[in-house]
Design goal:
The protein has helices spanning 37-50, 62-74, 91-94, 117-130, 146-151, 156-173, 188-201, 219-232, 253-266, 296-307, 327-330, 362-378, and strands at residues 11-13, 16-18, 25-29, 54-58, 80-83, 100-103, 134-140, 179-184, 207-209, 239-241, 282-285, 317-321, 336-340, 344-349, 352-358. It has 385 residues and is of the alpha/beta class. An 8-stranded parallel beta barrel has the order 3-4-5-6-7-8-9-10, surrounded by 5 helices. Strands 11-12-13-14-15 form a 5-stranded mixed β-sheet. A two-stranded antiparallel ribbon has the order 1-2. The protein is elongated.
Length: 385
């Protein structure tokens, strides 16, 4: 699969950097009432032990803020994100205690109806700027700003995207760029659609991905996996949250599942078919069977994958077949084909036979022919990485 690089800018969440070529960060949220200090501390410990890059905690009132202050003293090292819920006024009180503030545009209308949305966002931005916090603009399907919900009755996804884009402009106009965006829905198709639309319009803005209310495993994992596979494989997504319905003591599974999905995407193991699947180099290899005359065939297939990584963005098919029975015919449709005998490997270019080489020689010959194909197509030699 072609490696599509992310085009988002880098932002800083405490010591963590997301966006650009930074690794995709994995985060989760304490599932307990913040004021329940014992249980919330246990949640933080579980998520920390699971390797969470960011731990999110919700605050909705002054008592939650006091609890957060106690928790921060107990846990000075984790990167904390705070969810303002429906109370934007708490921003300057939580900002000294956390590394990122998340606000939902759909919740800003609850308080101070005499103030504009711009005034409320500016209030949050001032707090974040004062304490070097990042901001997440978190747009959710279930709580779209009423103005956008009414305006985009026929296309709720577009309402989410327009809301996110407009809030990005507010932050941009306030000269605040240390922010990311999330567009979440419980329907993975809508998550994919919304994030694709947003990324097409604002590709430089880092995206936090998640299928909200994904539900119980395994269904919740499958729904989340499909969304992540489709988006991350297309270069969309800089940090993720797997939202599963789990007992509190098992909340660390959200982190392990997230990392497993990221590993699978990186290694080309998909449960769904990404939009760009097979856009780049496509290596076909038979599963091996009793007809294979040299066990080196399996190692050879692995070596072909390794030595062709530098060319993985080019749409080229290479077939590696393990026997003389099916090998010659089943390599005909490939740009380059290898079919293996007892001591020699036959190299083909389409239906044209190029020669027979030892197992030690074949990789060098394959690379030479691969470079010739790329050179012919793009007019210069590829640069090996």
């Amino acid at each position: 699969m072609a490696d599509i690089k992310r085009s988002s800018r880098k932002i800083r969440i405490g010591s963590l950097v997301i966006g650009g070529d930074s690794p995709v960060a994995v985060q989760s949220m304490a599932a307990t009432q913040t004021q329940d200090l014992e249980e919330t501390a246990r949640q933080i410990e579980i998520l920390e032990q699971a390797g969470a890059d960011v731990i999110r905690i919700a605050v909705d009132n002054e008592a939650d803020v006091l609890a957060l202050e106690i928790l921060r003293k107990k846990f000075p090292n984790p990167i904390f994100s705070v969810d303002l819920q429906e109370n934007y006024r708490l921003a300057p009180k939580v900002a000294p205690l956390v590394n990122k503030i998340r606000y939902n545009p759909g919740h800003l209308y609850h308080l101070d109806k005499d103030k504009s949305i711009l005034q409320k966002v500016e209030f949050i931005v001032d707090a974040a700027r004062s304490y070097n916090c990042a901001i997440r603009i978190g747009v959710n399907c279930g709580s779209i700003d009423p103005e956008y919900k009414e305006k985009f009755k026929e296309d709720q996804i577009e309402g989410m995207v327009r809301c996110a884009v407009d809030h990005c402009k507010i932050l941009d106009d306030l000269n605040f760029t240390n922010y990311c965006v999330s567009l979440k829905d419980s329907n993975f198709d809508k998550v994919i659609d919304a994030n694709r639309r947003f990324a097409n319009e604002r590709p430089e803005v880092p995206l936090h991905l998640g299928v909200t209310e994904a539900g119980l495993p395994p269904d919740g994992i499958i729904k989340t996996r499909i969304a992540f596979e489709q988006l991350i494989s297309a270069g969309i997504g800089d940090t993720i949250r797997v939202s599963l319905t789990l007992p509190n003591d098992q909340k660390g599974e959200e982190i392990s599942v997230g990392r497993e999905i990221l590993r699978d995407i990186e290694q080309g193991r998909f449960r769904s078919v990404p939009k760009n699947f097979l856009d780049g180099i496509n290596i076909i290899a038979c599963p091996s069977c009793s007809r294979v005359e040299n066990d080196k065939f399996v190692d050879l297939a692995q070596e072909v994958r390794q030595i062709t990584k530098y060319a993985e963005s080019h749409k080229i098919t290479i077939a590696v077949m393990g026997c003389r029975v099916n090998g010659p015919g089943e390599t005909d449709d490939a740009d380059l084909g290898l079919w293996c005998g007892p001591s020699r490997v036959n190299l083909k270019k389409g239906t044209e036979a190029l020669g027979s080489y030892s197992y030690e020689e074949i990789l060098g010959e394959l690379k030479r022919e691969l470079d010739l194909i790329i050179s012919t197509r793009i007019g210069h030699e590829p640069i090996a990485k």
